[in-house]
Amino acid sequence: MINITKTALWLNTKDYLMIILGTFMFCFGFSAFVLPENVVIGGVTGIGSIVYFLTGISWSIGAAQFVINGVLLIIAWKLVGSHFVYRTIFGVICVTVFMTFLPPMFTEPFMPDQALLNIAIGSIFCGIGMGFIFTHNGSTGGTDIVAAIVSKHTNVTIGRTMLYVDFVIISSSYLIFHKVQTVVYGFFFLFLTTYVIDMIINTNRQAVQFTIISTRWRRIATAINNHARRGCTVMTGMGWFTKHEVKMLFVVCRKIESITIFRIIKAIDPNAFITQANVNGVYGQGFDQIKLKMDENLSRELEEEDGPEVMLP
Q1: Which long-range contacts (CB under 8 A, 24 or more apart) does 272-277 make?
Q2: Rounded distance between C-alpha atoms, residue 218 and residue 215, angstroms
Q3: Residue 71's pLDDT is what?
Q4: Verdict on whether the full-model pTM lies above 0.70
């Protein structure tokens, strides 16, 4: 019980530290590279930057984010649920703090006369930061809250809702600067940031599948269990050339863990036969959970079935 508690505490602490790092990277990328170029991005940060451009007060970005997110969180508490609100409050506080203190430090573009390069670098920083936040179960509020509320009560998806909201916010920058170039930069930031976020999330979730054939399969399987903390499935096969029975190990792990598997195999049996393949998705214990909306009619039909339980392969 103590070990489980320590593990859970470490995982939660790690999540919060990565959310802090992610929000800092997002706010730094925006404050140092994007905001000095007078570019409006999507989300509540975009609304805060519009307030900043209209008032000239640097800390107005953080203040606007705090007020808007506060109102949205109150609405979400009633319409979506307290669990979502608790998960979002920490990210909102971090973004508000960083967006209050970082913008005044960067009054000029980080790289003078390089607007497109500044937007690109800022997008990469923001994308990496948001990727860290999402992969560690965090949220920065804003359009996330609006999307969650809309998707809760309509058939419009979260991604589509966020796209609509960001489109309106970025397009509104034309009313301030009357420059099409500013709007184009805003959409460039949006698409590049989204691409980087997807890369971070998918890299974290990528998995590989190993098939290992070795006469020392017992030691390899035990070492993978103990050192890589991954499970092994032992399958029986036959080498048709030798007509001898062989044992094959089936292992699935995160892509970043594959080097550990290779080191274990090489240390025990350098002559082992190994195949490695990329896996698009792995769900279950130790990996991702299946997240989709269940068909209520299908669930009801399955519960009402009285036939024998069928074991699926």
Answers
A1: 272/212, 272/213, 272/214, 272/216, 272/220, 273/212, 273/213, 273/214, 274/210, 274/211, 274/212, 274/213, 275/210, 275/211, 276/208, 276/209, 276/210, 277/208, 277/209
A2: 8
A3: 82
A4: no
